[in-house]
Design goal:
heterodimer; A: alpha+beta; eight-stranded mixed beta sheet; 16 strands; B: 3 helices; about 20% strand
Chain lengths: ~325, ~100
C-alpha cells in the first residue's frame, strides 16, 4: 500500500467508491488501458447490502457483459423497464475482478478524505488504517452514493432535506410463501404513505422484502417493517437471512454534476428515481458516460470544466424521467 | 352597537395574536439558547448503527463523517437540529439533554 501511494507520477483517473457506478466507470476506463485507482471504504466490495437489487436487463448490454445469467436472481415479466433482480455481491465482485485483470487497482479499507486543486492537477488526501497518504490525479470521479462527504467537501451542494429523503429497512427473507413468485409486489399502508413495502421474490419461499418511508414520517423504518411483516399472512413466518439498511434520495437530480477535474456520478449526483427508488441503471449509465468524457478529456490534455460539461449533455436523457417522478412524489406528499 | 361588537372582536384578535406571538417568540429564544449553550446537549451513536450513511446526507453542517464501520461526529460543528435522529431507520443516533 505505502509503496504504491508514495507514487510520484500522476494517476490518470481516481474513483472514490466501489459501488455499481464507480466500478462500471472503472471497467470502461480500464478496458481502454487507462490507469485507474479505485478507493473503497469497506472491507469487501458489494457488502453489506443497501438496496432492493431490482434493475433493468439493459445494464449488461451497456457494460458489454455476456453470460450474465449467473448474476440474475430472478427475471419478472412486467411492463416496466426494471425487470430483474441481481445479486449485487456477485456482480460487483465480477466487475472488480475484470478491472484488476485489465490493470486497474482497487484499494479496500481506504477512502479519499480531502481534495485540493493546484496547477490543473488534483491532490488527494487518502486515509488508510488511520494513516495519511497523498496522491495526485488528473480526474476524480466521485461515486460514493448520496451520503458522500467528499462531494460536499469538493464544493457540490448535495445536502438533502428530510422531505426529500427516504430511509429504508429490509431483509432477504426465507420461509415466506409468496402467492405468485413471477410478480413484484408493492404493498401500501396508511402508516408509511407515500412510502411502501416492496416484495421482490427470488423463489416461492424467499425474497427481498423491504420498506421505504420519507424522512418527515417520524417513525423508524426498522420497527415499522417488523410490525407490517407480522401483520401480513404470507410474510409472518419469514426469517431474516441478511439485513438491509439504507437510504434513498428522492430529491431533484443535481443540475451541474461536474467541476474542474471532478465528476459526480450515480447516487452522488442524486440520479435516483423518486417513485420507484431505482438507481442502479442510472448509476451504471452515468458511470459509462463519465468514463467516455474522461477519455476525451485525457486525450485532449484538458480536464477543465469546458470539456467535462459534455458529460451533462450525455446523461441529459435521464433527467426528464427523474424530474417527472420527483414532481409526482411532491403531489403524493401534498395529498397525504 | 355593531361598531362596539367589531371593536371588541378586534381587541380579542389582538390579544390572541399577542399570546401566539409570545409563545412563538419563547420557542425561538429556547432554540437560540440551544445553540449558545451547546454543553447542555449531547449527541451519541449507539450499537444499533450500521453506518448506512443516511444521517450524513441530511446533515447541513458536515458534522458527521463515515469511518466505516463507525460514525464520527464533530461536536463543535453540530447544531443539534435533530435531522439525523429523525431520519435514522434503526434508532442508531440520539440527542440528549444533559441533566446536571
Amino acid at each position: 500500500m505505502k509503496k504504491i501511494l508514495n507514487y510520484n507520477e500522476v494517476v490518470d483517473v481516481i474513483i472514490a467508491g466501489a459501488g455499481p457506478a464507480g466500478l462500471s466507470a472503472g471497467l470502461e476506463l480500464s478496458r481502454k488501458g487507462i490507469k485507474v485507482f479505485i478507493f473503497e471504504k469497506k472491507k469487501t466490495v458489494g457488502k453489506p447490502l443497501k438496496c432492493g437489487e431490482l434493475t433493468r436487463e439493459e445494464i449488461f448490454k451497456l457494460l458489454d457483459i455476456k453470460n450474465y445469467e449467473k448474476f440474475v436472481r430472478r427475471k419478472y415479466f412486467v411492463s416496466q423497464p426494471a425487470n430483474i433482480v441481481i445479486s449485487r455481491f456477485k456482480f460487483e465482485n465480477y466487475l472488480a475482478q475484470e478491472i484488476e485483470k485489465n490493470g486497474g487497482k482497487i484499494f479496500i479499507n481506504s477512502f479519499v478524505e480531502d481534495v485540493k486543486r493546484e496547477n490543473n492537477i488534483l491532490i488527494l488526501k487518502i486515509m488508510h488504517d488511520k494513516e495519511e497518504y497523498f496522491i495526485s490525479a488528473k480526474i476524480l470521479i466521485i461515486a460514493e452514493g448520496i451520503d458522500s462527504y467528499l462531494a460536499r467537501k469538493a464544493g457540490f451542494d448535495t445536502f438533502i432535506r428530510p422531505k426529500d429523503f427516504a430511509s429504508c429497512y429490509g431483509a432477504i427473507m426465507k420461509n415466506v410463501d409468496i402467492p405468485d413468485p413471477n410478480r413484484i409486489y408493492i404493498i401500501r399502508d396508511k402508516r408509511i404513505y407515500p412510502g411502501y413495502l416492496w416484495v421482490f421474490p427470488n423463489s416461492e419461499n424467499s425474497g427481498n422484502i423491504g420498506l421505504g418511508l420519507l424522512g418527515i414520517n417520524g417513525k423508524r423504518a426498522k420497527f415499522l417493517f417488523k410490525k407490517l411483516t407480522s401483520e401480513i399472512k404470507w410474510l409472518k413466518k419469514g426469517e431474516i437471512v441478511e439485513e438491509i439498511v439504507g437510504c434513498i434520495s428522492v430529491a431533484l437530480p443535481e443540475q451541474k454534476p461536474y467541476k474542474d477535474n471532478i465528476l459526480l456520478i450515480g447516487g452522488s449526483a442524486k440520479l435516483v428515481d423518486s417513485i420507484s427508488g431505482e438507481g442502479i441503471y442510472q448509476a451504471i449509465y452515468s458511470g459509462k458516460m463519465a468514463a467516455e468524457t474522461a477519455l476525451i478529456a485525457l486525450s485532449q490534455k484538458d480536464c477543465s470544466e469546458n470539456i467535462l460539461k459534455t458529460y451533462r449533455e450525455k446523461i441529459d436523457f435521464l433527467y426528464p424521467e427523474l424530474i417527472k417522478s420527483y414532481l409526482m412524489k411532491e403531489k403524493l406528499i401534498k395529498g397525504r | 352597537m355593531k361598531n362596539k361588537r367589531k371593536f371588541l372582536r378586534n381587541i380579542l384578535r389582538v390579544f390572541v395574536s399577542l399570546i401566539i406571538g409570545l409563545s412563538v417568540f419563547k420557542n425561538i429564544r429556547v432554540y437560540g439558547e440551544a445553540i449558545k449553550n451547546k454543553r447542555k446537549f449531547k449527541i451519541e451513536v449507539n450499537n444499533n448503527c450500521t453506518a448506512c450513511g443516511g444521517c450524513i446526507a441530511v446533515c447541513h453542517t458536515l458534522a458527521i463523517k463515515n469511518i466505516y464501520p463507525k460514525l464520527l461526529i464533530d461536536k463543535n460543528k453540530c447544531t443539534f437540529c435533530g435531522y439525523c435522529e429523525q431520519v435514522c431507520p434503526v434508532k442508531g443516533i440520539k440527542i440528549y439533554v444533559k441533566k446536571s
